Amino acid sequence: MNQPKRVEHQMTDKGYVPVYTTDVVEQPWASYTDEDHAVWATLFERQRQILVGRASDEFLHQQQAMGMTPDRIPKFDDLNPVLRKATGWELVGVEGLLPELTFFEHLANRRFPVTWWIRKRDQLDYLAEPDLFHDLFGHVPLLMNPVFADYMAAYGRGGVKAHAIGPEALVNLTRLYWYTVEFGLIRQADGLRIYGSGIVSSKGESIHCLESASPNRIGFDLERIMRTRYRIDSYQKTYFVIDSYEQLMDATRPDFTPIYARLAAQESVPAGSVQPGDAVYQRGTGEGWPEGADV
Ligand code: HBI
Ligand code: FE
């Protein structure tokens, strides 16, 4: 396999992260080795098994509808016609993490940047940055869902705006992405399910987020999320639960400018705390719903 080209490292609110060239690159499909395809197959099969009954029905259905299979790394050019037809989104190849504004501009224009390289076999369980498996297996299936697809584009437009407002607004908005797109849970009729890409692409967290007694599972609340810190180097201490993808889209419709102004006067909430007013779910199994929950 070719080597990913790192440009520099940059300090962000998430720590020291590698920054790659911001260019869109052709997926070098012919240069994937047999071992790269085998790593994809291992990860794909392992996660598909774990995610039955854990990932949202919509995620599992759309992943299949896209035609992703374990037998080889999918070609972006094969997935793109399917995705374009469903929601107008397309995949573009990138070297890895992009500067925030570049990333937001892609999303606002319905382009999802997918890291072209895949992790090595000794990194099956954890990788500190996005790779092809996280981006393609984790993020792309829900882009087939029209409501979620609109939410992602709205998020991109919001990102461009927040970037112009300033760093504090950007921190608030980044938390929204983290606690929904990356680590979100959704309430299905038969219990809590996963839709966040950071979870569905991780074996350990797929089990932890639903079955462990330790993390908080709290009903979606836009401003609560924007105030909540997060950890990038451990399982999440708090997950936020949506009722539907429409709820995400609806929450993103208003102009966030007055919200950022209001939040600027408030303290951030530690990652693992429960606050007055939080709707707390006890378990991921449909038992212990918050008071008055209508399941
Ligand atoms: N770049 N390629 C890529 N993928 C991401 O998920 C990504 C990024 N750059 C910035 C970024 N995510 C975060 O800042 C999000 O919070 C927006
Ligand atoms: Fe991601």
How would you describe what is shown here?
This protein is α/β, with parallel strands linked by helices and 295 residues long. It has a single domain (10-264), classed as Aromatic amino acid hydroxylase (Phenylalanine Hydroxylase, Orthogonal Bundle). The chain has twelve helices and nine strands. The protein has helices at residues 34-51, 57-66, 76-87, 100-108, 132-139, 146-165, 167-182, 197-200, 203-211, 222-226, 245-252, 257-263, and strands at residues 6-12, 15-20, 90-94, 111-115, 185-188, 191-194, 216-219, 238-242, 280-281. The chain has a five-stranded mixed β-sheet. A two-stranded antiparallel ribbon has the order 1-2. α4 (100-108) links the parallel β3 and β4. The protein starts with 5 loop residues before the first strand and ends in a 14-residue tail after the last strand. 40% of the residues are buried. The model is unreliable at 291-295 (pLDDT under 50). The structure holds 7,8-dihydrobiopterin and fe (iii) ion (FE). 7,8-dihydrobiopterin (HBI) binds next to α4 and α7. 7,8-dihydrobiopterin binds next to α4 and α7.
